[in-house]
Design goal:
alpha/beta; disordered C terminus; five-stranded mixed β-sheet; Alpha/beta knot; Ribosomal Protein L25, Chain P; 260 residues
Length: 260
C-alpha cells in the first residue's frame, strides 16, 4: 500500500471541507489522477498535518474532507547544511537529495572555489528561487511535514559566525584524520549540527582554517571521494543512524491532535 500523496500549503484549512485548487489542484486531478475515496495529506511545512479523503475531483481542483489533524515533531538534533554553490543543475540535485535525506535547513555558501557565483541581481535571485522550488518539490515527494528553509547565500565569514552558534559543525573533507563513525559518540543529541560541503574544487586551506578557528571539525565519510552534489545526502544518512534522528516513525499516528 503506497503512502498518500502530500500537498504543501501556506496554512492548513480551518474547517472540515477544503478545495485544493491552483497548480496543486490541477496536479492532483490530472497528474496524480486522484479519485473519490482516496487518502491525501496536507502539510503546512511547519509540522502541521491534516489527513483528508477525496470527496470529488474536477478538471483542475480536488474537493477534500478533512478527517484528522496532528503535529509532527522535528527530528533531533537539527541538521543545517551549508552547501557550496556548484555549477549547473548539480546544485539543485544536491539540495533535492539532501531534502529527501532529511535536512532541516540549507545555507547556500559562496565558497572560494565555487564556479557558480550567484552575484546580486536577477540571476542570483533566479538561482536561489530554483533551489527553493527544488526543495519544496522534494519535500512533497518525501512526504515531509517540515519544509527545509533555504536561506540567503552566505560568505565564509558569515558561515564562520554560524559555526560559532551551532552545537557542532562538521566539515566534510577527504583529508580529515577522523571519520564520522569515530566521532559518533561526540555528536550532540539535541540542538543543531551544521554540516559543511565544499564545491567541486574542494575547500581551500584558508577556509578550513577560518572555519576551524570558529569551532568546525573536519571529518571524512569513508575512503571514497564523493561529488559535491551527493556528499550531503550520504552524510545525512549516516547522521540519521548515528544520532538517532531516524529512530522511530514521526507520523500522525504518534503525534498530538490539533484543535479544529
Amino acid at each position: 500500500m503506497s503512502t498518500p500523496p502530500l500537498f504543501l500549503l501556506d496554512a492548513l484549512p480551518a474547517g472540515d471541507l477544503f478545495v485544493l485548487d491552483g497548480p496543486q489542484g490541477r496536479h492532483g486531478a490530472t497528474v496524480k489522477r486522484l479519485r473519490a475515496g482516496e487518502a491525501v495529506l496536507l502539510a503546512d511545512g511547519r509540522g502541521g498535518v491534516a489527513q483528508a479523503v477525496v470527496d470529488a475531483v474536477g478538471r483542475d481542483a480536488v474537493e477534500l474532507m478533512i478527517t484528522a489533524r496532528c503535529t509532527v515533531e522535528p527530528p533531533a538534533p537539527r541538521v543545517l547544511l551549508a552547501q557550496a554553490l556548484v555549477k549547473g543543475d548539480r546544485g539543485e540535485l544536491a539540495v533535492e537529495l539532501a531534502t529527501e535525506a532529511g535536512v532541516d535547513g540549507i545555507l547556500p555558501w559562496r565558497a572560494a572555489r565555487s564556479v557558480a557565483r550567484w552575484d546580486g541581481g536577477p540571476r542570483g535571485e533566479k538561482a536561489l528561487a530554483r533551489w527553493r522550488a527544488t526543495v519544496r518539490e522534494a519535500a512533497k515527494q518525501a512526504r515531509r511535514s517540515w519544509l527545509p528553509v533555504v536561506e540567503e547565500p552566505v560568505t565564509t565569514a558569515v558561515l564562520a559566525r554560524r559555526v560559532r552558534a551551532a552545537d557542532a559543525t562538521l566539515v566534510l573533507h577527504e583529508g580529515a584524520a577522523d571519520g564520522l563513525l569515530e566521532i559518533a559518540g561526540e555528536l550532540p543529541v539535541t540542538g543543531e549540527v551544521l554540516l559543511v560541503v565544499g564545491p567541486e574544487g574542494g575547500i581551500t586551506d584558508v577556509e578550513l582554517d577560518e572555519l576551524g578557528a570558529a569551532g568546525a571539525r573536519p571529518v571524512r565519510l569513508g575512503a571514497e571521494v564523493l561529488r559535491a552534489s551527493t556528499a550531503a545526502a550520504v552524510a545525512l544518512g549516516a547522521l540519521g543512524v548515528l544520532t538517532g534522528r531516524w529512530a522511530g516513525r514521526r507520523s500522525c499516528g504518534a503525534a498530538t491532535d490539533l484543535p479544529r
